Every structure is written in C-alpha cells, then in structure tokens.
Amino acid sequence: MTATEAGTGAGTPAGAGDGGRWAPGDHILWRYRANGRPAGGGHAVHICRPVTVVQDTDELLAVWMASGTECVRPVLADGTQVHAEPLATRYTRPRTTVRSRWFGSGVLKLARPGEPWSVWLFWDRGWLFRNWYVNLEEPRSRWAGGVDSQDHFLDISVRPDHSWEWLDEDEFAQAQRVGLMDAATAGRVREAGLAAVEVIRRWGTPFSDGWEHWRPDPGWEVPALPDDWDRAPSPTPS
Predict the structure, then answer these.
(1) Cα separation of 12 and 67, whole Å?
(2) Using one digit for the tens of pLDDT, what is the confidence trace for 162-202?
(3) Is 195 strand, coil or helix?
(4) DSSP letters along 49-105, please?
(5) Strand, coil or helix: what is 124?
(6) What are phi and psi of 170, to 5 degrees?
(7) Cα 166 to chain center, whole Å?
(8) From CA 109, how far away is CA 14, in angstroms rounded?
(9) Residue ranges of the alpha helices (H) in the chain?
(10) Is the pTM of this model over 0.85?
C-alpha cells in the first residue's frame, strides 16, 4: 500500500487492532530505550512519543506525530539540554527525563519490519517538504501499546533532490569512546547505514512512494501522553 492508498480514521484506544495490527487512527507510543545499562539493570525508556497510526501492514508501519504532542525526552540531571552539553561529557553526565511538547511541524515516521532504521519526513510551514531523515536504530519490537527501539546515534539526511549526507558522526564516534556501543555493534550500524544509502541511491521504498504528498486527517485528535508512558511492554494483541 502506498501513501495515496493509506486510509484515515478516528482515534481509538492504544493497543486496538485486528490480528495484531493497528487500524488507521489508533493511538500508540513510539519509544526508545536509553543507551547503556542503567543502575539496577534493564534498559529504561527515555524517549516516548504518542503517535497516530496511518498504516500498519506486513510491509510498513506509518505513524504521525502531530505538532503540540506532549512527549518525554532526556535532559541532563541539572536540566541542561542534551545537545547543549559538550560532546566530551554529553553521554557521561547523569540524566533524567522531562515532559515537553513537540512544537515543530508534525513528523511522519515510516518503519519496515526488521529494518534497522526508520525514515522520518519533515515539512516546513505551509506543507513545504523539507527532507527525509533516516534514523538508524534497533529494529522495533511491537507490544500492545506501541513499538520500542534503541537509537544508534548515526543518521542520514536526504534532500528533495535525492542528495544525502551522514549526520551525527561525531556522536556516533563518542558513543563508542565512552562504551555505549561496542565495536561489533558499531560495525553493524555502519553496515545498516550503507544499506540505507543503497536504497537512497536507487530511490527505493519508501522514498519513491509519494509520502511527501500525504496529509493527516484534520479530524484526528492529538494523542495524550499516558501517566504510565514508561510501563513494561505487554504482549501484542492477537
């Protein structure tokens, strides 16, 4: 199914779905676990974004994060914004999470099952398409309330003229220096990035599917951030 075929619908409770699939208009959570192992073991969620399902099939999960969505994001324990901290200490100083609203233009996120990246679409005011953004990440795991992943630092920006560039290579290198990513994992991430570049060069899916022309249903409500946004994943619906 392509962008022009994707349906829309009214919001329904998170976890709704038929045969483990969500319907257009369902509200779910798109979450990322913190890199590294926190005290006490486990991987705590440090990014949570409520989104509206656009399409959920065997080939693609597409979701919309609307402007004004209340999200959870990491900050340093003293309140310093992560990217305001010098790179040398950005990943070693203590962190916490805060609630804040996404006030930029909305973001359309596209993810194919099993792929170690997702593709995000950004627009400027007036629906002027800005760029695609390839977020290299652990393949997403599905649960009843949404999807979970872990960011892999390295990213790729793709312009409307099909040109592209690597992003955040300094953060990718620093994450390895401070032990957030071992050499084997870093090698797999770089290989995933090169595989994504090959898709870009041949202009494969989802870049060629017309998603830049997609628009959200104006009747959709902005999903709420639940109090238990960091709850342990529950089984997917069956």
Answers:
(1) 19
(2) 999 999 999 999 999 999 999 999 999 999 999 999 999 99
(3) helix
(4) EEEEEEEE-SS-EEEEE-TTEEEEEEEETTS--GGGS-HHHHTTS-EEEEEEEE-SS
(5) strand
(6) -70, -40
(7) 17
(8) 17
(9) 87-90, 169-177, 183-201
(10) yes
